[in-house]
């Protein structure tokens, strides 16, 4: 039974143990992501959208129509995750999926009138999220730049190490 105190392997000081949880950037990112998810669930309640659905809708509101492949790239979602999500959103009347006349392998996604109308309800979401995050606009912008740099570095690292799994 643990008393909650921190233990380290024999010979390793707590200060120089690279396997301490509080030294893992990935853990802090995961915790921040989960906290964002919790706030988004509360803020999006009035829209009826889940966070992944919200991301799809803001992508469609920005671009009007997109091939599924492009949505997948923009949101970094694989087709096994995105396809069922789009199907549920289509059944809910938020978007349509149609085969491209130019390339039958491509499926084009467009918001429906109901999906477009939802944009008005969602306009306040970013301000509520920014307020909940407790960051100044400058801090939020700096954090976004740092996260984008981190993602680009990790992608470059993956590209350099060969094919992805």
Automatic annotation (TrEMBL):
Major localization class: cytoplasm
Pfam short name (any one): Staph_reg_Sar_Rot
GO molecular function, one term: DNA-binding transcription factor activity
GO cellular component labels: cytoplasm
Subcellular location per the Swiss-Prot or TrEMBL entry: Cytoplasm
GO biological process, one term: response to stress
Keywords assigned: Cytoplasm, DNA-binding, Transcription, Transcription regulation
Keyword Cytoplasm set for record: yes
InterPro entries documented for this protein: HTH_MarR-typ, MarR/SlyA-like, Transc_reg_Sar_Rot_HTH, WH-like_DNA-bd_sf, WH_DNA-bd_sf
Every HTH marR-type domain range: 22-152
Keyword DNA-binding: yes
PANTHER family attached to this UniProt entry: ORGANIC HYDROPEROXIDE RESISTANCE TRANSCRIPTIONAL REGULATOR (PTHR33164:SF5), TRANSCRIPTIONAL REGULATOR, MARR FAMILY (PTHR33164)
Protein name: MarR family transcriptional regulator
Organism: Streptomyces sulfonofaciens
């Amino acid at each position: 039974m643990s008393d909650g105190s921190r233990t380290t392997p024999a010979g390793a000081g707590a200060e120089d143990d690279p396997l301490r949880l509080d030294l893992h950037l990935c853990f802090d990112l995961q915790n921040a992501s989960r906290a964002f998810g919790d706030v988004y669930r509360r803020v999006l309640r009035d829209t009826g959208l889940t966070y992944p659905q919200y991301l799809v809708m803001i992508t469609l509101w920005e671009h009007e129509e997109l091939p599924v492949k492009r949505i997948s790239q923009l949101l970094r979602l694989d087709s096994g995750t995105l396809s069922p999500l789009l199907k549920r959103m289509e059944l809910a009347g938020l978007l349509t999926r149609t085969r491209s006349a130019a390339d039958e392998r491509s499926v084009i996604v467009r918001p429906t009138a109901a999906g477009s109308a939802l944009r008005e309800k969602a306009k306040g979401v970013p301000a509520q999220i920014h307020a909940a995050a407790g960051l100044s606009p400058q801090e939020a912008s700096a954090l976004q730049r740092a996260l984008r740099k981190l993602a680009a570095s990790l992608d470059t690292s993956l590209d350099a190490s060969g094919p992805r799994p």
